[in-house]
Amino acid sequence: MYDYLIIGAGIIGLNIAKNLKERFPDSKVLVMEKEKEVAMHSSGRNSGVLHAGFYYTANSLKAKFTKEGNFALKEFCKERNLKVNACQKVVVAQDEKEVEGLEELKRRGDANGVELHWLDESQLEELYPNVKTYKKALLCPSTATVNPKEVTQEFAKFIQEIGVELILDCKYESSNGNIISTSKGEYEARKVINCAGLYADKIANDFNFSKDFVIIPFKGIYLKDHNNIAQLKTNIYPVPNLANPFLGVHFTLTVDNEAKIGPTAIPAFWRENYKGFDNFSLKEFLQIIYYEAKLFLTNAFGFRELAFTEVRKYSFSHLKGLAKKLTKNMDDVGYDSWSTPGIRAQLLNKKTLELVQDFVVESDEDSIHVLNAVSPAFTSSIPFANWVVEEHVLKKSS
């Protein structure tokens, strides 16, 4: 009998395990992961950007945790000798309407306590001569990048050092109360914590949760310049459409100074639809096509335009063209290969047909379900895990 059984060894599951074991050293904590190693999905396939926390409204969980998480992850990387690229970020505008968007981002940043600086065109040129803006831009000093796979693997090492049990290649199959049947037998726990990412809603259904929600997968791919022929010096972002959770095509530096353009946000047709027909599931395909068809027909949150716009990004020239609007004359010859694709487990409200923007967790005394842990969940993972434990473990146990 375990005290806590965590399904999914992504960045969130590992950090919840870490938090529980540090609070309750005598507790028996088990993390089970269906893959043969950790970081095989979103936690190891994201951009690696440590966001600062100025995109989100001040009353959101994302705003609360992103700023704290940026600092906490940098500290973890420092303690464990992991590389961090302190490359900053500039957000640029293309016209008067986007300047208004920048001003809204600055208001949100100020409300969230995030350091942001205005740059006029001449100041921007002095710092980053090849970056283009209209009238002014925002500089965010705290944005940085890490290797997400390396960081997630380090959390897996850390939790085992402090006595958490991690079982790999162990796939969840079903549950009977808090007895979990897996590909490696049955496990029982006083509290089950579902951090299964792309499958969190399905597992939650087995515990009578996630009744109003379903996960819709979106595929993200970057175009890479391995040698940074473009001589990119910082992350360059456009003003996003704040009505949806995607940040638009941008330039990103990796921890090793590779340059990337992207990502796409292409609707996927099954949950692990990374490449070709790999991991194809007819049941998933039919469910996802049903909801994507509803979104397309109703054009909820502009889904129809989003779908057409995103599919066009499979063209190298089109994707490069979108990115080059952010620069004066960026050399794009080095951007010649796709990165490893990632899939965003985006929660959809089935009743309102809205993409849920903030983190969503449902729970009772026996189980906790992390349903929506989308970007910037990687950056937010340490304080988010702490909040899950305080709000959904301690309060539900008292």
How would you portray this structure in words?
Helix content is 35%, strand content 24%. It is of the alpha+beta class. The strands form five sheets. Strands 1, 2, 8, 9, 10, 11, 21 and 22 form an eight-stranded mixed beta sheet that branches. Strands 5-6-4-14 form a four-stranded mixed beta sheet. A four-stranded antiparallel beta sheet has the order 17-12-19-20. β15 (250-253) and β16 form a beta hairpin. α1 (11-23) packs parallel to α6, α1 crosses α11 (377-397) and α3 packs across α11. The model has no long low-confidence stretch (mean pLDDT 94).
Mean pLDDT: 94
Task: Show unreliable segments.
Answer: none
Give the tally of β-strands.
22
Strand content: 15-25%
SSE class: alpha+beta
Q: What Rg do the Cα atoms give?
A: 21 Å
Please give the count of helices: 11
Largest sheet: 8 strands, mixed
Shape: globular
Give the distance, in angstroms, between the N- and C-terminal Cα atoms: 21 Å
What is the helix fraction of residues, given as a range?
A: 25-40%
